[in-house]
Amino acid sequence: ITSFTTGSTFSTNFRSMGSIQVPSYGPQWVSSAASVYAGAGGSGSHISVSRSTSFQGGMWAGDLAAGMARGLAGMGGIQNEKETMQSPNDRLASYLDRVRSLESENRKLESKIREHLEKKGPQVRDWSYYFKTIEDLRAQIFANTVDNACIVLQIDNACLAADDFRVKYETELAMFQSVESDIHRLYKVIDDTNVTQLQLETEIEKNHKEEVKGLQAQIASSGLTVEVDAPKSQDLAKIMADRQAQYDELARKNREELDKYWSQQIGESTTVVTTQSSKVTAAEMTLTELRRTVQSLEIDLDSIRNTKISLENSLREVEARYALQMERLNGILLHLESELAQTQAEGQRQAQEYEALLNIKIATYHRLLEDGEDFSLGDALDSSNSMQTIQKTTTHRIVDGKVVSETNDTEVLRH
Known about the structure:
- The protein is an alpha+beta fold.
- The protein has a domain at 1-78 and 376-415.
- It is built from six helices and five strands; from the N terminus they run βββααααααββ.
- A five-stranded mixed sheet has the order 2-3-1-4-5.
- Strand 4 and strand 5 form a beta hairpin.
């Protein structure tokens, strides 16, 4: 809470003695006092500024009027008022010269006041450096946001590629399992074929032996010797041996054909399995690399997000701090503008009072010139002792840089 109290006292001394006098507005004394109080912990502060300015103007008495007053006082009365009013043109000229000199002094004082206000007035700080810093931070945040978007896009592309490789891997794995199952079935068929071949060979040998034994038994049981003049019969054992050789050759050929066929099938299946295994291995390696890339990109994304969050927090803190400073400075500026407006109004009021007093003195001068015989020394002395004092007190109450209340007290004192 900030409180400003400004007090101003203006005094005007009006003297009228036989000739026209003008008030002097030269500053006689200026005093100011200031006190600052801050509460514990910085929870509140109270600033009180008090200024008291007193301006006293006195009527300038001409040498001719002073001599006339002393002469009249010494003689005890006015003997010849017409003699005291001689040379009115000279006195009017001196009065106008005095007015011009006072106006010149007034202009000089106004120029000095203006220069003082320009030097000691409120200064507008240059915030361009901080604006440049804020713009740089915003540019960094924008660049980080763009990089973040690019990284997110790369992560999405990597995820899509990983999904494609996963689908390809699953497809190749299913094909590999299917081929492997076919190979196992073919191995089983080969085993079954070998078993069947062995069974057939065993049965052929068994049947051959049984037929040979049956024929030998028949020959032995008959006991007959028949000699026929006929061509020599064929040897049954040789025939059986030839048949057995033929069957063996046929079985060997079938076995070789089966071995060749299944060897070819197994070779092709092995080639396919090897190719698929190499593809699966490459896909697994690619998938592992993509997973590592995704993990590294996720780590980079987290770090960039944290950096972005910290920069945003810093930007918000800077903006809040500068907003508070700007609000405080705006409050001080408004207060100074109000004081400047009051000072200007006070100056205008003093100028109006000065003009009014000048008009009064001119009217008094004309009255003295026209009705000189009605003027007495007692009236001049009474009017010379009259002094008017105007005291004005202005109190401003400022909370958080804003003017919340304003109090004006004006008091007119006569002496």
